[in-house]
Amino acid sequence: LAKGPPCPDPFALVKSELIPFSDNMKLLVASENPILSQAASHFFEKRHGKRFRPTIVMLLAQALPNAHKDSSEVVFERQTRLGQVTEMIHVASLIHDDVLDDADTRRGGDAIHKMYSNKVAVLSGDYLLARASVLLAKLGHMDVVQVMARALDSLVSGEIMQIKANGAADKKSSEDKNEISEPMNGKRSFLDRAKAALNVGRSQEALQRELAERDAREMELYLRKSYYKTASLICDASRSCALLAGHASDSEVAAAAEEYGYHLGLAFQIVDDVLDFAMDDDQLGKPAGADLSLGLATAPILFAAQDHPELRPLIERRFKGDGDVTMAYETVRASTGMDLARKLAGFHAQRAVDAICRVAPDSEARDALISICYIVLSRNK
Ligand code: FPP
Ligand code: FPP
Ligand code: MG
Ligand code: MG
């Protein structure tokens, strides 16, 4: 990675595959209800986004060796379908996410629930998910169905984890009857205080150890949520792409493809979280430090807390105290938190490169997959 990107524009390599992608997509999601068809196809046409996931699937399709008895054209067609299914799941989750987050905009325009209504948003997300499931099953590969079902499970788990974490410290949302939160949440801070009282007579060493364990737990939680939310879909789609190429579930190629997606997804999420601190509002297109306002403790702040223990109580109350967001933001900016988080992202990006180089022979598509790791690390928006 230190040498720079081997392929200047990895997206250009699969451009020709992605052009008919959108037209095809419209046919795939056509329904009897014009509003539903319109809403469901909206994000495949004019505002199609970066198409990160299908790009990676198509590049893997070219880079991985074909071990299937069927011809490579037939295999490639199935892999293309997998790319479409993946993007459909992604778009469905974004449409639902904007309802859950009460977000007005998506991809530089109105969110679906703003363009139409909540009902249309819920239904068109469901509809896309249902279409994706039918297309997935039609691929006729049991292991692929299983792996992609796990991706859905992970996406939803990530969302539930996030709602729980926020519900814990957010007074306003705990008053909201629609919010999902654990009944134990209110009591937890009391239990923590009781535990802290017991700590009074304990050795410094034991306290330090407990704090280190708590930091490790927070980091674990953060990484798990990032896996569910960001890495799982691309990681499971990458594995599925290898399976469709005829590689067995326990093969080195399937494992390496999965590893590639896993590490790339994590690197991407960590960089995303660094940018939330590194950029100002204008550069970001949304308020900087937004994650803090949402109560999210991401990698930069978790690293910063190691040198700045005064951040720990803020993290614990999810930045809900007066002035918490500003104080946390300033502290992180003046700390090594962002640098350390970038290093962690670099570690994951390198692991992704190692994984793909282990199984894919030298090719343009492999270079493009390596370049994507590089781009993820060096992007600044
Ligand atoms: C929208 O996806 C954002 C999310 C699903 C949350 C976090 C995702 C990322 C930081 C990017 C995922 C990275 C990889 C390597 C797959 P998006 O940024 O892909 O949105 P788009 O489809 O509108 O471009
Ligand atoms: C974006 O995150 C959202 C996700 C990564 C996934 C959302 C998943 C669900 C709503 C579960 C339902 C899933 C399906 C398949 C229907 P974000 O809100 O942090 O990012 P943003 O800034 O792009 O909104
Ligand atoms: Mg959102
Ligand atoms: Mg969300």
Descriptive report:
With 381 residues, this protein is an all-alpha fold. The chain contains 19 helices and two strands. The protein has a two-stranded antiparallel ribbon. A hairpin with a 2-residue loop joins β1 and β2. α11 crosses α12. The longest helix is centred in the middle third of the chain and has 41 residues. The radius of gyration is 22 Å and the shape is globular. 40% of the residues are buried. About 4% of the residues have low confidence. The structure holds farnesyl diphosphate (2 copies) and magnesium ion (2 copies). One farnesyl diphosphate binds next to α5, α7 and α8. The site of one farnesyl diphosphate (FPP) has 15 residues, from α5, α7 and α8.
Average pLDDT, rounded to a whole number, is 87
Range of strand content: under 5%
Largest sheet: 2 strands, antiparallel
* Ligand identities: farnesyl diphosphate, magnesium ion
Which bin fits the share of residues in helices? over 70%
Order of helices and strands: HHHHHEEHHHHHHHHHHHHHH
The count of β-strands is 2
Rg over alpha carbons: 22 Å
Instruction: List unreliable stretches of 5+ residues.
Output: 169-176, 181-188
Tally of individual helices: 19
Distance between the termini: 20 Å
